[in-house]
Design goal:
The chain is an alpha+beta fold. It folds into three domains: about 140 residues, OB fold (Dihydrolipoamide Acetyltransferase, E2P) (Beta Barrel); about 70 residues, no CATH class; about 220 residues, Chloramphenicol Acetyltransferase. About 30% of the residues lie in helices and about 25% in strands. The chain contains ten helices and 25 strands. Strands 15, 18, 21, 22, 23, 24 and 25 form a seven-stranded mixed sheet that branches. Strand 16 and strand 17 form a beta hairpin. Helix 3 runs parallel beside helix 4 and helix 8 packs across helix 10. The chain is globular. The chain binds oxidized coenzyme A (CAO).
């Protein structure tokens, strides 16, 4: 028997919330097989087992906060005796409280009865019978609440999550899909009905007594001006809040703006983009900017440095790892291109594409989020001109890229239409002087306008 404990996740991450348990008791698992999905302060990650074996016991469940070093699973050589297996030893039952018996509900369901949303675990119990992936094939929900059997519900985990967040009881929702499957739209429609039906001042009380829910954040609250909604923060949001606050409070920021004439570069991008596509990637503005920045950082090491306030030292990094801000539906994530200075444009395109996709699928590895020395954030796909990006502490600078726009530019005695790319460089004024920042920015602009500039000195 061996215990698998939550490993070090790095960079100040000490805990996470279990969003999904990916194995069942009795499963034979391989080394490196993901066993739980965990939402940390930085991202949702799959945690792989450090050993192969048979799952004897699962010590965590969805919604649990798990600390580094805490036991997640117990692994053994053999499958546990006497199927069906138990996921967790039932705690001693209080004398008066009537717990569901194994005939009424499987052990893991009984375990979940104590959790806020009894239906979730019943879903997993259904999964044991049919091994298909949960997102692909939603399983019925069945649970008992207060002795009253609940209806069988069909809904994907993402829909259940939405229902939880909106304070909607799936039991009250009429599914519009095949076989009564509940969609996200059905949940939203039900949330709308609930809000209409309830006088604001009564909302919290009604929710507290809603069947099948022992604990919920009221979806609507009110103050003297009207109603408002309380929304719990996700782990990614909490992390963003914490890191941005720290950076804002500790780093004296200055933002230097400029723009680069990328008319020629755009022609290059269109021409050679096809070759990069052959490698399965896209030669984007972001990729080109990462390449140019990687070169610039070798020439301007102060922009690739950390401040060690305690020792009053500047740590000049001899490696170039560029973080790329990615807008995902669960919040901002910044995967890191390691060794960006040693990569060709095509390699960078492949890597940026891979990282952005993994981040959006919530499948990014922790190591892909660590080790950055400088960050690029491109809002050009959305629009807008300059902005003031916040440095990712402990880095020293961040480059914001906005949408390239056609502008009349005075050239050779006349105005010519040129594609201009707005750039915003925020830097740590404790270690970078304004003149240095202006020089760094001019170098970037010249390199974007005349790529041979990169090889000049
Ligand atoms: N100027 C003009 N057009 C731009 C552009 C720019 N700076 N940046 C992107 N575009 C275009 C792209 O060419 C693409 O057009 P086509 O579809 O015609 O090719 C379209 O806009 C969409 O681009 P994209 O967003 O996919 O661009 P990308 O691959 O270069 O960017 C990524 C990848 C991950 C940086 C981007 O998707 C993203 O998430 N950006 C948001 C980053 C963010 O949230 N920053 C804020 C951090 S602080 O809160």
């Amino acid at each position: 028997m061996a215990e698998f404990k939550l490993p070090e996740l790095g960079e100040n991450i000490t805990s996470g919330t279990v969003t999904k348990v990916l194995v069942k008791v009795g499963d034979k698992i391989e080394k490196e097989q993901p066993v739980v999905e965990l939402e940390t302060e930085k991202a949702v990650v799959e945690v792989p087992s450090d050993a192969a074996g048979t799952v004897q016991e699962i010590r965590v469940k969805e919604g649990d906060t798990v600390n580094v070093g805490q036991v997640i699973l117990v692994l053994g050589e053999e499958a546990p005796e006497n199927e069906p297996p138990k996921e967790k030893k039932a705690p001693p039952k209080p004398e008066k409280k009537e717990e569901p018996t194994p005939e009424k509900a499987p052990p893991e369901q009984a375990e979940e009865e104590a959790a806020p949303y009894a239906g979730e675990k019943a879903f997993e119990a259904g999964e044991k019978k049919k091994p298909a992936g949960p997102e692909a094939a939603p399983k019925p929900e069945r649970a008992e609440t207060g002795g009253k059997e609940r209806r069988l519900m069909l809904a994907a985990p993402s829909v259940r999550r939405l229902a939880r967040e909106m304070g909607v009881d799936l039991q009250q929702v009429k599914g519009s899909g095949p076989g009564g499957r509940i969609s996200a739209a059905d949940v939203k429609a039900q949330a709308g009905k609930k809000e209409e039906a309830k006088p604001a001042e009564k909302a919290p009380k009604e929710l507290a007594t809603e069947p099948g829910r022992e604990k919920a954040s009221p979806p609507l609250d009110s103050d003297k001006y009207g109603r408002f909604e309380r929304q719990p923060m996700s782990g990614v949001r909490k992390s963003t809040m914490q890191h941005i606050t720290t950076a804002w409070e500790t780093i004296p920021h200055v933002t230097q703006t400029d723009w680069a004439d990328v008319t020629e570069l755009e022609k290059f991008r269109k021409t050679y983009g096809k070759r990069v596509e052959a490698a399965g990637a896209k030669l984007t503005v972001t990729v080109i900017v990462v390449k140019v920045v990687a070169e610039a950082l070798k020439k301007f090491p102060r922009f690739n440095a950390f401040v060690d306030v305690e020792n009053e030292e500047i740590l000049l990094k001899h490696y170039v790892n560029i973080g790329v801000a990615v807008d995902t539906e669960h919040g901002l994530m910044v995967p890191v291109v390691h060794g960006a200075d040693g990569k060709s444009l095509t390699e960078l395109a492949v890597e940026v594409g891979r990282l952005a996709q993994r981040a959006r699928e919530r499948k990014i590895a922790i190591e892909d989020l660590q080790g950055g020395t400088f960050t690029v954030t491109n809002l050009g796909g959305i629009g807008g001109l300059w902005f003031s990006p916040i440095i990712r502490e402990p880095e020293a600078a961040i480059l914001g890229v906005s949408r390239a726009v056609m502008e009349p530019v005075w050239m050779d005695g006349e105005f010519k239409p040129r594609l201009m790319l707005p750039l915003s460089l925020s830097y740590d004024h404790r270690i970078i002087d304004g003149a240095d920042a202006a020089r760094f920015m001019r170098w970037l602009v010249e390199a974007l306008e005349q790529p041979m500039r990169m090889a000049l000195d």
